[in-house]
Amino acid sequence: MGMRRTGFWTVMGMLLLSGCAHQQALKVDNSEQPYRIGREDVLDVSVWRDQELSRTVPVRPDGFISVPMVGEVQAAGKTPTELAELLKTGLQPYVQEPRVTVIVREVNSSRVFVTGEVAHPGAYPLRGRVSLLQAIALAGGFTDFANSDGIVVIRTDGKGGQIPVRYSDLVSPDGESVILRPGDTVVVP
């Protein structure tokens, strides 16, 4: 009977201790991603040796652009090269061996959103690589009531998901930084 009781308390102790252990941090993918065209970007569509088909077009709020002879084309979410291939395919019945180039003239869609207990919640443009720590600084830092160790980054890049982040890990010497991507939402509880 005493052996069973000792085994029971040993198992219970292990369960309690395992519940107190910190969760292992998720591995965050900070690799460079190809630029994806977004809503409100402005594009230069160039068809070689055909000035009438070449033009500057805005990406509408629904993610489409309008191109002569091709019509409505989904641009948001595609790389410039992918969009150029799509336009080339659309022009082939009308233009002999079309050569299409797409250049992003204005980047207007690349933003992150910071909300919750920060001094200035809102949308902030992404110009280059912006870390989570930099985005919090852009938003004016934490308010007095912020739970800085309960930050969540909501990522909407197709894989989706939430990335829990502790501020104490961000500022520690061996902590890993989180590089934000267009469309990320930072929630500071």
Kindly describe this structure.
- The protein has helices spanning 2-20, 80-91, 132-138, 167-170, and strands spanning 42-47, 55-58, 64-67, 71-74, 100-106, 111-116, 122-125, 151-154, 162-165, 185-188.
- It is built from 4 helices and 10 strands, in the order H-E-E-E-E-H-E-E-E-H-E-E-H-E.
- The chain has a 5-stranded mixed beta sheet. It has a 3-stranded antiparallel beta sheet with strand order 2-1-5, covered by helices on one side.
- With 189 residues, it is α+β, with helices and mostly antiparallel strands.
- A hairpin with a 5-residue loop joins strand 6 and strand 7.
Which terms summarize this structure?
single chain, 189 residues, alpha+beta, five-stranded mixed beta sheet, three-stranded antiparallel beta sheet, 10 strands, elongated
Summarize the SSE layout with pairings:
Layout: H1 2-20, E1 42-47, E2 55-58, E3 64-67, E4 71-74, H2 80-91, E5 100-106, E6 111-116, E7 122-125, H3 132-138, E8 151-154, E9 162-165, H4 167-170, E10 185-188
